[in-house]
Each structure stands twice: as structure tokens, then as C-alpha cells.
Amino acid sequence: MSENKSGKPLFYDPTEHRIRSFVTRAGRLSGAQARAIEELGPQFLLPYAKETLDIDAAFGRSAPTVFEIGFGMGDTSAKIAADMPEKNFIGVEVHTPGVGSLLKQIGEQSLTNMRLIQHDAVEVLTNMIAPGSLAGAHVFFPDPWHKARHNKRRLIQGPLVSLLASRIAPGGYLHCATDWEEYAIQMLEVLGAEPTLKNNTDAAEGYAPRPDYRPVTKFENRGLRLGHGVWDLVFIKQP
């Protein structure tokens, strides 16, 4: 595994004493993405702060709010937000090109129900999101860290699921999706072990049909044509 000059793994955060599940990469920022950050960032990009976010003030209204971890380039997030104008969406992503891409789509589609935070999702959930304040949470296609020695870096693990569940109001949901079967099995086990969550499907295998609100991406369509599987898991927060 790669190491920095101090000898610590690149994913180790000495200030938080925990392993991070992502690698911060600068990436290549296009001109359009840079312009979107400059022009739309002040309105739609919320600064990280170690204080509870006033969600109603951030959106200028009171509405059910869905939290998304790792929106990538934002195509799915923008589609969902456009189809559900009655809901607020907070998307968290660490990579600048993805933030710029989604801001660009927000501008092109005149989406007013999205706010973005460019920061570590665990810290955002811990410090900015009040317990019981979310109507739902999305974690779509997180990095599977497919090598066995890297499995511990996977996002969906007990501590994060417990934290997410604590921020979801009773009756709200946690929706995860993956195209890596072994990760799907782990997700099912971890989500099933969280006492405040209940699986929302009666299917014997425990996986849910893809909810209509989650669009099928081009990458996913290509995989399905090649016979690759996709697994959705939807769990409901219990009273």
C-alpha cells in the first residue's frame, strides 16, 4: 500500500485517528466546471462547519431532506432532484470535478432544491446534521475496495451506518446500491445488524427492486448488458 513521507498510509487521518474511505484527488477541472464553482458555488455550495446546519435556512423552505454520500459527477443526483422538486437534497462529495459537474447541472436545469458540501461525509454527518433531521439517505455505488486487504476501507460499515441511522427520522429510509456482489453481501449484513433499521423488502435474498426514483446510469446499463448484477438495499428507520 502506498505511503506518504511520514510512513503512514495515505488514507490515515492523524487528526481524526481513523481510516478514511477515500483518496482525495485534485482531478482535472474543466473550464465549465470551474465557472460553475465560481458562479454557482456561493449559492449552492455550503461551507463545512463544526456546527449544526439550519436546513430550512439553507434551502429557504421547510421540506423533507435527503442526504447523499459521494455523488460522483452528479448525473444521478441531478435527475433525482429534478424529479422530486418537493424534497431537499444535500449532496456530499470530496472531489472538485464532481462538485463542479453537479453545480453545472444545477445551473443548466435550474434546480433550486440542491445544496452541496465538499467535505468528508462522516464529519458532515457528525457535526452539521442534527439527529432525526433527514427523510432519507442515498449511498450509490461506493468504491468497492475489491481487494481483500482493502475491505476495511469500505464506506458501508457498522459505525457509519449507525451514524447515518441516527440522523434519519423514524419512517425515513437508507438506500444503498452496488454493482459488486461481494460488497452487496457485506452491505446486507451490516445494515441488517443495525437495530434501528428494518429491511424494506420481503424478498428472500434481502435485496430490493430498484426504486423508480433511482435512474439507471449509462455505466450500469452497459454492465447489465454484459450480465453484471446490481443490488439495491432499502432499509427503514424504526420508531
Write up what this structure looks like.
Belongs to the class I-like SAM-binding methyltransferase superfamily. TrmB family. It comes from Herbaspirillum rhizosphaerae. Catalyzes the formation of N(7)-methylguanine at position 46 (m7G46) in tRNA. With 239 residues, the protein is α/β, with parallel strands linked by helices. It has a single domain, classed as Rossmann fold, CATH 3.40.50. It is 34% helix and 19% strand. The chain contains eight helices and nine strands. The strands form two sheets. The chain has a seven-stranded mixed sheet, with helices on both faces. Strands 1-2 form a two-stranded antiparallel sheet. It is globular and about 50 Å long. It starts with 11 loop residues before the first strand and ends with a strand.
